[in-house]
Amino acid sequence: MATPVVPVISQAPSATDPAVYAEYESKWATYPTDAQGWLERAREVAAVLSVDAAAREKANKSPKAEVALLKHSGLLKVLGPKKYGGGEQPWSVGYEVIREVAKGDGSIGMLLGYHLLWSRTAHVVGNDEQAERFQKLIIENNYYVGGAVNPRDNDLKITYDDSNITYNGFKNFTTGAAVSDLIVLEGAIHDRPEEHIFAIVPTAQAGIQFHYNWDNVGLRLTESGSAKIEGISAPWTDALGWDVATKKPDPAVLGIPFPALLLPTIQLVFSNFYLGIALGALDFAKKYTTTSTRAWPYGGDNKEKATDEFYILSTYGNFFAHLRAAEALANQAGAEADRIYGTYQNNRAAFPIEERGEWAELVASVKVVTTDVGLRVTAGVFEVTGSRATASKVGLDRFWRDIRTHTLHDPVAYKNRELGRYVLLGEHPEPTWYT
Questions:
Q1: In a domain, 327, yes or no
Q2: Which PANTHER family does the protein's record reference (predicted)?
Q3: Hey, how many other C-beta atoms are within 10 angstroms of the C-beta on 250?
Q4: Which residues on neighbouring strands pair with residue 148, listed in sequence order?
Q5: pTM attached to this predicted model
Q6: Do 62 and 140 share a domain, yes or no?
Q7: Radius of gyration over alpha carbons of the chain, in Å?
Q8: 339 & 315 share domain
C-alpha cells in the first residue's frame, strides 16, 4: 500500500516557552518520598496547569513548556527505581498521578500517561538487561518518552543485518513523540510480518520526520500527529525481547504470557486520564455554578441562588456518585496491577494467562464505566452552569472535547461485547493490540 498523503508542515510550529515554568525547577528540586507526597506533587502540577489551560489549549502550540514542567516536578520518574533517582512507586500510584494531572489539563495528563507506559515498556516485553539499561537511561537523564506504535496503521517495516535492525514507514499517530527525548518504535520484519520488534531510540534524528499536523477537536496539546520514519536503526541488543544470536524472539521473554500485560496496562492509563478529565470538569463546573450561575426565575418554585435549585443539586449529586464509583473501580484495577507486577515481575515465567484474562476484564470494565460517565458528566455540566458557561473564554467545553477525542481510540462497544462474552460464556479476551 502506498504511503498515505498527509499535509506536512516544513518546520515545527510555535511552541510554548519552557521559561514560563523555570521557577519550578528549584521549587521542586526535592522529590517526594512516599505515595501521598507524589499525589500532592501531581495536584500542584494540576493547579499550575489549570490557571491558563483554556488559553493554552486554544493556542494549540507544541507543549515543550508543559513537558519541561513535568520534568521539573519529577513525575516522569514516579515509577523509576530509587537507585537511579526515581520514586519507585507502584503502578497504582502512577495511575492516580495521571488522574490528578488530567484534572488540571487533560492533554498533559495524557502525555504523562503515555510516557509512564513507554518508559516501562522494556520491563514488559524486554529481557532483564534491557529493562535495567533503559530504566537507568530514562530516569537518570529525566527523559520524556513518546511512541510511534499505532497498530491501526501498516506496521513500520524492519530490515536487518547481523548488527542492526532498521525501521522505515509511516505512522498516523505519535503521541508525545515530537516533544520527546526518546521514542518507542514498533514494526514487523519485512520477510516475516508476523514477527514484531519494539525498540527505543533517540528522537532527534533526521530520519524521524514529524508532520506537526495534530489539529483535532480535543487533547490539542498532545502532539499526536503523524510521522515518517526513514532509515532509523538500532542494534540488535536494543530489540526488546529478542535473542541477539538467533535473531529470533527469545522464548523466555516473548514466548510466555507476561508481555501480554502491556495492553491492559495502557488501557488503564487511558481510563485514568478519562476519569481525571471528568473529575476536573465537575470541579470546574462547581466553581462556576457557585460564583456565576443564576437561579431560574420562571419555574414556579423560585430560589434566590442557583445552589438552592433542586435540579442543580440533584444533578451534581448524581454526577458525584457515579464518579466516586468509577474511582473505586479504577483503584481496584490499579491495586490488581500492583499485585500482578509485584508477584511476577521477577518471576515472569510463572505468570498464568488466566490472571492476565481476569485483569484484562477488570480493566475493560473500568474503560466502559469511565467512558460512559466521562462523556455524560463533561456534556451534562452545561445543564447546571447555564448558557453563559458556553462562552469561549470560560473554556468548559475543553473537558468534553478531550474525552470525546480519545474515547474514539478504540470503540468501547467492543469492550462491552468482550465483557458480555466473559459474563455469558466465561471467556477471557484473546490478547491483541487492543485487549
A1: yes
A2: ACYL-COA DEHYDROGENASE (PTHR43884), ISOVALERYL-COA DEHYDROGENASE, MITOCHONDRIAL-RELATED (PTHR43884:SF12)
A3: 18
A4: 185
A5: 0.96
A6: yes
A7: 22
A8: yes
Q: Are residues 271 and 158 in the same domain?
A: no
Pair 132, 159: CB distance under 8 Å? no
Tally DSSP H helices, then E strands, for the chain. Answer: 14, 9
CA distances from 248 to 153, 237, 254 (A): 24, 12, 10
Task: Please tell me whether residue 221 adopts helix, strand or coil conformation.
Answer: coil
Distances (CA, A) of 286 to 14, 114, 166, 386, 412: 34, 29, 52, 12, 28
The neighbouring-strand residues paired with 169 are: 229
Cβ neighbors of 134 (< 8 A, separation 6 or more) are: 122, 126, 200
Domains contained in the chain, number: 3
The C-alpha angle 194, 200, 205, rounded to 5 degrees, equals 110
Judged on CB neighbours under 10 Å (0-12, 13-18, 19+), 354 is: exposed
Domain interval for residue 24? 18-144
Q: Give the domain CATH number at 153.
A: 2.40.110.10
| Digit-coded pLDDT (tens) for 36-49 | 999 999 999 999 99
Split at pLDDT 50, 70, 90, the class of 8 is: very low
Query: How confident is the model over 201-237, as pLDDT tens digits?
Result: 999 999 999 999 999 999 999 999 999 999 999 999 9
Whether 237 and 101 map to the same domain: the answer is no
Q: 377 with 327: CB under 8 angstroms?
A: no
